[in-house]
């Protein structure tokens, strides 16, 4: 990594850094300087810092220098990339289903990728092993109601009438979102488990100014807003369920904050795109929810949702997808023995991979096999996590 500096690591094939910041305002200052270097750089701004993914290694030193000038330090130990791997006897049959469900684009490896680089990549690999029973892992995806209808997945089934399955029986709960509220002051916002608004911008200056304005409004009321910068876009996100009630112990009506941000966005000339909001999470069925949840929290560096009634675990930096758990009927012994067709792959920087594997095994993981730069680990009930060493 000496070629692009000590702050950076290769993660998912991209030079990536995490810079810690004491607030959204300090992070937004760096974000603004980063996008001025190149509109193609991806920036994920959080209340505790920001992740930067470069379009070209040539910008690495300039970003690091800007961070140093602002007093922000890099922490490579916090970098990781989570993806979902689906195994199928005939990937060409299941791929179109998932492309419609997720509104993803084809990836170079034959899988599917989120064009906004926010939600997990789906890697689709061939496997002849027959696995006829239901997976213990499925995806929940929330998209605007019109987008759900246009996906054309056929008639839904299940207790909530939102479940669909591909030709192999892999399931997705495709949930229609809704307006955040009935007031015109929040018309740009949708509730897709998260409260989310996606704004098209026409210049880097407009993107920078909207980021700074949203960060200042959120910081003023103490709300840890998620702000993602993409070419021509600013994506504003509360985080799953974080906009309801007192998710952060704040005396706050989130719709008031949403309305203030909407006003600022429109005054700056940004235009909301109602088709873009999307939320995706992983759902695991487990006979022993406590044990399985504890394993995944340790393996991914996640923390429990602060709500006592929720089984969710979340990335404390809100960079990777939420995992949640529900109890599995212990009488389903065959289903529990069957290997899932879906598993999770976690890429971490190469210099951190051995310690990450050790932490995962200490959390109750069982090493199934390893090859150069890859470790396949089973959780206490056989769900698989593959840890991959970044390049």
Outline the structure in words.
With 391 residues, this protein is α+β, with helices and mostly antiparallel strands. 26% of the residues lie in helices and 30% in strands. It is built from nine helices and 25 strands. The strands form five sheets. Strands 1, 2, 3, 4, 12, 13, 14, 15, 16 and 17 form a ten-stranded antiparallel β-sheet that branches. The protein is globular. The termini are close together. The mean pLDDT is 95.
Briefly say what this structure is.
The protein is an alpha+beta fold and 391 residues long.
Assign an overall shape. Answer: globular
Structural class: alpha+beta
Share of helix among residues?
25-40%
> What value does the average pLDDT take?
95
Unreliable residue stretches: none
Strand portion: 25-35%
Q: How large is the radius of gyration? A: 21 Å
Most strands sheet: 10 strands, antiparallel
Gap between N and C termini, in Å? Answer: 10 Å
The count of DSSP E runs of length 2 or more, i.e. the number of strands, is 25
In DSSP terms, counting alpha (H) and pi (I) runs of 4 or more, how many helices? 9
Give the helix/strand layout:
Elements: E1 9-11, E2 14-20, H1 24-37, E3 42-46, E4 49-53, H2 60-69, E5 81-88, H3 91-102, E6 105-106, E7 112-113, E8 121-126, E9 137-143, H4 145-151, E10 163-165, E11 171-176, E12 178-179, E13 190-192, E14 194-200, H5 204-220, E15 226-230, E16 233-237, H6 254-267, E17 271-272, E18 279-286, H7 289-300, E19 303-304, E20 313-314, E21 323-327, H8 333-337, E22 342-348, H9 353-362, E23 366-371, E24 374-378, E25 384-389
Helix pairs in contact: 1-2, 1-5, 5-6, 7-9
